[in-house]
Design goal:
By secondary structure, chain A is α/β, with parallel strands linked by helices. Chain A is 49% helix and 23% strand.
Chain lengths: 168, 168
């Protein structure tokens, strides 16, 4: 892969709020292109909420044409109802990537924290501070889901960089 | 809704095996049009597996043009890894229905057992026997996932019938 430019779309899955962050990775430098969150309202049938999220991600993919889609793995949840909803949303994100023919990678929260903050036990605030610093942003991205999605994208960029070093 | 014909696609979600069953419901009679299971192999990246399942369901929806898609709710799982995989597959099924513009309903295992076997504590074998009997089949549908999917479709048919009676 060398020093070629890579556009990476990071996704933090959720049904009510699906965080996204698009970064450009070139010559070991990263910059933010766009970040935010897709939201859906409670009370709307779940298949329609998933359709809206899938459509929103499809539009982002069309707009930025990312080389890679990076999606956070689901790791821990207090209750089963939450894990079902988040997993269904994650399924919609995986499908949006696959149906666009994009490469798709998953990263665990541990991998993301290690890559972005330097250690796997970093707390949410430390990761957000590092996202702000690494992307030269004036503020910590809001909502939290957007900052998390940028962290996934950064983790993916560093992983591609490592793979690239091995390739050489 | 009265006595109008309804085609119902029932789905029992899963990543390795996604059961499906298509029935026609008319004049309080039900008949099986097609049943089976979509399968994906372990070792294939999960976004590609979901894409294959989504594509397979899309082809079934195009072929039978169901009025309603009925999907089993996720209720109980021994381990978290399983619930994540099944929920992602359920997300793909919900999306296949939503992106085809189909009405979509969910039914819990309890509702399905009550509707098909007459009581919520019925075991798997009792439900399968009733699926065979109600659809006038010579054998219990195989694999189990197909029989489960037909049970979801039958449960949905009876629910629509009840709604229809209330409408009148």
């Amino acid at each position: 892969m060398g020093n070629s430019e890579k556009i990476i779309l990071g996704i933090d899955p959720g049904t009510a709020t699906m965080g996204y962050g698009v970064i450009r990775f070139k010559n070991q430098e990263i910059e933010s292109l766009e970040y935010g969150a897709l939201t859906t309202e409670a009370g709307i049938p779940e298949h329609i909420r998933l359709k809206d999220l899938y459509g929103g991600l499809g539009r982002l993919i069309k707009k930025h044409s990312p080389d890679v889609v990076a999606i956070e793995d689901i790791f821990y949840f207090k209750n089963k109802k939450t894990v079902i909803k988040v997993s269904q949303a994650r399924g919609a994100a995986l499908l949006a990537a696959a149906n666009s023919g994009k490469e798709c990678y998953s990263f665990t929260p541990l991998q993301i924290k290690q890559a972005v903050a330097g250690w796997g036990q970093a707390d949410k605030k430390q990761v957000q501070d590092m996202v702000k610093k690494l992307l030269n942003l004036k503020e910590i991205p809001k909502p939290d889901d957007a900052a998390d999605a940028l962290a996934v994208a950064i983790c993916c960029a560093y992983s591609l960089s490592t793979l690239s070093a091995i390739d050489m």
